[in-house]
Amino acid sequence: MNQPVTKVLVIGYVWPEPRSSAAGGHMMQILESFLTQGWDITFSSPATIGEHKADLPALGIAERAIELNNSSFDDFVRELAPDIVLFDRFMMEEQFGWRVEQCCPDALRVLETSDLQSLRDARHQRLKEQVKAQPDSDDFSALFAPALEDEFQRMADTDLAKREIAAIYRCDISLMISDVEIRLLTEQFKVPAALLHWCPLMLQPPSAAFAPFEDRAHFLSIGNFRHAPNWDAVLWMKHRLWPLIRQQLPGAQLHIYGAYTPPKATALHNQAQGFHVMNWAEDALQVMTAARICLAPLRFGAGIKGKLVDAMLCGTPSVTTPIGAEAMGDDQPWPGVIAQDAPALAAAAVALYQDRERWTRAQEHGRQLLARRYDQNIHGAALVECLERCRRDLAAHRRDNFTGSMLRHHAHKSTQYMSQWIEAKNRTL
Question: Which residue from 3, 66, 371, 391 has the highest number of Cβ atoms inside 10 Å of its Cβ?
């Protein structure tokens, strides 16, 4: 007798845009892992549809628009009766978790964290404080190497961390894109390791030859402008880093691509300075392949960086900070250079741009790193196995997570009553 097909409901904070953000790319990789199992997938979201949304129906994935604070979701999820519900970002678990538990108590609840937003926010605040205290400094080494205990101290009292980590506890499994964040949660916040699963970006390692040194020119920076770390990096490049590079390479150009380019970014375009704001790239891998160096001078952030994985896929060496490289590599050489201040980043970028032998070595290091750390065949299978194991032992798994059960009991009740009040209020308007 055939086993019934596993039904998956994804509740997305946004509709996935794999060509706009690493988060969108990661979601598509997760969905592809489910599709290879023959699972029946429905993607839902209360968000408006963005310009670069993936064509989910073409992949056989059903779509459903849902509303916040509306009991129509209850009827929908009851009828669908999913075996697995995946919340994309903790805010979706906050909004819909109590409804899922009420209507489908036996469904496995999975949280796709993308990155720890509370960690990213704490680092952003730390950067703002340093810039305010030392406006002329280009040395951010103090920001780039804090111990996990120091990160915990920064995060522990924030509302965002309490909300985010409570959602992790309330779910059966949380997918973590960064193994550094797993360590932070288990060692500092004391989250049980059984609630976390390492799920990095999942890719097919490149097999074709890379475009060589001689066929490439200029520098590339890429990233969604709506993502605060990317915008901060653009400003730092404009005012500090790029002038240092141009002093040594007067003919060099920097091409900056990103989805949802705001007028404030377009205003930075200056052809005479070689600083080109190019808007959205139809094919990010194509423009990455044409570049000689990927610049990613991130001063804050969390998770792992899709742009640096794209650089490795294209054989494009990168110059980045410890924040950019965090959780991306291992104990083997980085495919490029990691530096901590504007002069060092600029010097590294110029040297790598001019040194064919060093550049070619960095290119090969990227290929090797992809194969070691980001193989889709390995991580896709591990993800599916993790979810199936958890489903088999769900009762015991939830019993062992008493803190999560307690948080669900209290938080979901208060969320439920608030949501029902909002819905009733909306009906009277």
Answer: 66
